[in-house]
């Protein structure tokens, strides 16, 4: 696919996928080490490059392995999530998953879809029709599905079409509980909106009653923890990264095959403790909800240096709530 905003660095974008057996053996080792060191797996998400490059048989085995671990600790309320471009998840692939995964609710499939079609096709290699078709198949087969959309500069020109699509999925969520999640985030880098443009799209989505789309206004995301974010990304070779934002050679901070998890957790805790945060944040009444956002996405220059990438949107939304005497906590809690 080679999508424009893929996190994978140029130097390994064209690497071949490893054999499925290597992936599964690595997972078995990971689970064994977790259990030996008396930890448990919490949230578990497979994502980019593209996890569905695995065969459906291997993916099913992977899900069953993680769920077997969970059963040992009675933590089956957690499942396995996958963030996917959705291209390979056609009827044939999904039906094999349906047959081989012990319970299809054990896999949550989050599709990367950037409506409307012309924008998705522009940045995601003309894949819109196929992805929508596969999304609908997964939905109709009863897999828990979600949508994660990226908002770019271009989205501004198609506010209405973007909102219409997301609204249709939120309506489904309200009526059927599936998709279980419909969220959006801003692109960073060249495709990023300016702070004023973020407010512009925020105003429109507020008018449409769709502010719950934004990850940064929803509960439970790592970004709200600022420098104390606590996500881990482990690859099959042993490399440990903070997350996909640091999926680079320089982002490796530990080796899960060699290091004790106690040490990995300690190192991760302080990994971003010294990342610059604007002094404006310490006087901001919304800091408790924002914590200057993702430490790797903050503005790097000018007046905004050290502010959250979407500071302008957060301030706009929370200030509007205050002006209307609405409660910010209730607003966030209702954005699940
Ligand atoms: S660096 Fe950003 S995206 Fe990564 S875990 Fe921290 S807050 Fe989340
Ligand atoms: S809203 Fe802006 S100023 Fe306030 S804490 Fe977040 S980044 Fe800092």
Distance between the termini: 30 Å
Radius of gyration: 20 Å
List all distinct small molecules, including ions and cofactors, that are bound in this structure: iron/sulfur cluster
Say how many strands there are. Answer: 8
Low-confidence stretches: none
Q: Main β-sheet: number of strands, strand sense, barrel status?
A: 5 strands, parallel
Mean pLDDT equals 94
User: DSSP helix count?
Assistant: 12
Overall SS class: alpha/beta
The helix/strand order is HEHEHEHHEHEHEEEHHHHH
Strand order of the largest sheet: 1-2-3-4-5
What percent of residues are in strands? 5-15%
Gross geometry: globular
Please outline the helices and strands.
Elements: H1 20-36, E1 45-46, H2 56-72, E2 80-84, H3 91-100, E3 107-112, H4 117-123, H5 128-141, E4 145-151, H6 159-176, E5 181-186, H7 195-207, E6 233-234, E7 239-241, E8 254-255, H8 261-269, H9 279-282, H10 287-290, H11 311-323, H12 328-333
Parallel strand pairs: 1-2, 2-3, 3-4, 4-5
Antiparallel strand pairs: 6-7, 7-8
Structural write-up:
The protein is an alpha/beta fold. Helix content is 39%, strand content 10%. A 5-stranded parallel beta sheet has the order 1-2-3-4-5. The protein has a 3-stranded antiparallel beta sheet with strand order 6-7-8, with no helix packed on it. Helix 7 crosses helix 11. The relative contact order is 0.09. The site of one iron/sulfur cluster has 10 residues, from loops.
């Amino acid at each position: 696919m080679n999508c424009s905003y893929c996190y994978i660095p140029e130097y390994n974008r064209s690497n071949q996928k490893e054999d499925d057996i290597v992936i599964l053996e690595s997972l078995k080792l990971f689970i064994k080490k977790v259990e030996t060191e008396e930890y448990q797996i919490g949230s578990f998400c497979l994502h980019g490059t593209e996890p569905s490059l695995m065969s459906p048989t291997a993916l099913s085995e992977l899900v069953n392995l993680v769920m077997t671990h969970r059963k040992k600790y009675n933590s089956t309320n957690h499942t396995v999530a996958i963030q996917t471009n959705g291209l390979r998840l056609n009827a044939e692939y999904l039906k094999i998953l349906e047959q081989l995964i012990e319970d299809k609710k054990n896999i949550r499939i989050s599709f990367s879809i950037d409506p409307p079609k012309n924008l998705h096709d522009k940045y995601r290699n003309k894949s819109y029709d196929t992805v929508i078709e596969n999304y609908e198949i997964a939905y109709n087969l009863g897999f828990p599905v979600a949508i994660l959309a990226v908002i770019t500069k271009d989205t501004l020109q198609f506010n209405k079409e973007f909102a219409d699509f997301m609204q249709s999925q939120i309506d489904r969520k309200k009526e059927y509980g599936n998709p279980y999640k419909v969220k959006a985030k801003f692109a960073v880098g060249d495709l990023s909106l300016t702070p004023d443009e973020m407010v512009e799209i925020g105003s429109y989505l507020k008018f449409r009653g769709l502010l719950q789309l934004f990850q940064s206004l929803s509960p439970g995301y790592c970004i709200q923890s600022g420098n104390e974010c606590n996500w881990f990304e482990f690859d099959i070779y042993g490399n440990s990264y903070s997350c996909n934002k640091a999926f680079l050679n320089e982002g490796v901070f530990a080796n899960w095959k060699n290091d004790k998890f106690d040490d990995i957790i300690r190192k991760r805790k302080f990994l971003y403790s010294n990342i610059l945060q604007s002094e404006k944040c310490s006087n901001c009444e919304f800091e408790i909800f924002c914590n200057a956002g993702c430490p790797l996405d903050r503005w790097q220059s000018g007046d905004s240096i050290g502010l959250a990438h979407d500071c302008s949107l957060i301030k706009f939304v929370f200030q509007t709530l205050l002006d209307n005497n609405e409660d910010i906590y209730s607003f966030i809690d209702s954005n699940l």
